[in-house]
Amino acid sequence: MFRYGQDIGIDLGTATVIAYIKNKGIVLREPSVVAVDSNTGDVLAVGKEARRMLGRTPGNIVATRPLREGVISNYTVTAKMLKYFINRVCGKFIFSPRIMICIPSQVTEVEKKAVIDAASQAGARKVYLIEEPIAAAIGAGLDISKPCGNMVVDIGGGTTDIAVISLGGSVVSSSLKVAGDKFDEAIVRYIKKKYNVMIGERTAEDLKINIGCVYPKIQDTEMEIRGRDLMTGLPKTVVVHSSEMLEALIEPAMMVVDAVHGVLEKTPPELAADISSRGIYMTGGGCLVDGLDKLLQEKTGINVMIAQDAISCVALGTGKALDNLDVLDAKKRK
């Protein structure tokens, strides 16, 4: 069935792509993974199906994540992935949809252009960009139009975006390439060093989600994992405890805390006073690592809150920003 192209908001994340359609809400949530046939260049699978192939493909099939550290690392594959997702949420349409896409706060003009071009190639009529912390603040339900300071820490898969927002724009912002992926890498390194066992990205992510923590837990939990013994080359089973996860994850977690500290140092005094009374809001999947809010609260002395539905905050904010597309278009025409 043909229909007019809808307005779509896309959180183009390093780990997950979330799509929001006006008046419908979130309609798609898929891992940003693409499986490509290296001989022909054909896309074989996208999303969940492709994620299952990570680390398990034969020589001619490559399962990759086309976004690294919040920006496009493989332009062609990103355009194909976007096209697949847009077609999936829109079906067939006469007029191409208008699309709003989130980008990290400190990206270069070249990186911005890559996102716009990839979305245009995927079938967008018009592409708008919105900074992730601003979208996250809107999605978390903060009123950013007032002259008072709100601090948002958005921890995604590839980047951590920190911003102090007032009157609808970011006053001080910082983007750090330490986020969920770096937590996974720290776990892989730790298990390799301590147990001499090599584990994959997916196993590391399971450890992070199930027993990962960055603040001492009252009760130590454990999880059994399997990997390859580097001495014998044979499969090996290891039992890992949450106290070990604390050792593995504290370094990247402290880098995030230091970045928040750095942004607070640059914040104008009036806005700093607002943040002190209103608190810091955390969004994004990375902020769900157990104890990260407690660690940040202890180190800054400011109340820290995790937003409701933290993973979808950026997509929801993008969706709410879609309502102002006509205003943006009118401004451009003027």
Characterise the protein shown here.
The structure is a single chain. The protein has three domains: 8-134 and 314-333, ATPase, nucleotide binding domain (Nucleotidyltransferase, domain 5, 2-Layer Sandwich); 145-178 and 253-308, 2-Layer Sandwich (Nucleotidyltransferase, domain 5), CATH 3.30.420; 180-248, ATPase, substrate binding domain, subdomain 4 (Actin, Chain A, domain 4). Helix content is 40%, strand content 27%. It contains eleven helices and 18 strands. The strands form five sheets. A five-stranded mixed sheet has the order 3-2-1-9-10, sandwiched between helices. The chain has a five-stranded mixed sheet with strand order 13-12-11-17-18, sandwiched between helices. β1 (8-12) and β2 (16-21) form a beta hairpin.
Short description:
The chain has helices spanning 48-53, 75-90, 109-121, 132-139, 180-195, 201-211, 242-266, 269-278, 292-300, 313-321, 325-333; strands at 8-12, 16-21, 25-31, 34-37, 43-46, 61-64, 67-68, 71-72, 98-103, 126-131, 150-155, 160-166, 169-176, 197-198, 222-229, 235-241, 280-283, 304-306. It is of the alpha+beta class.
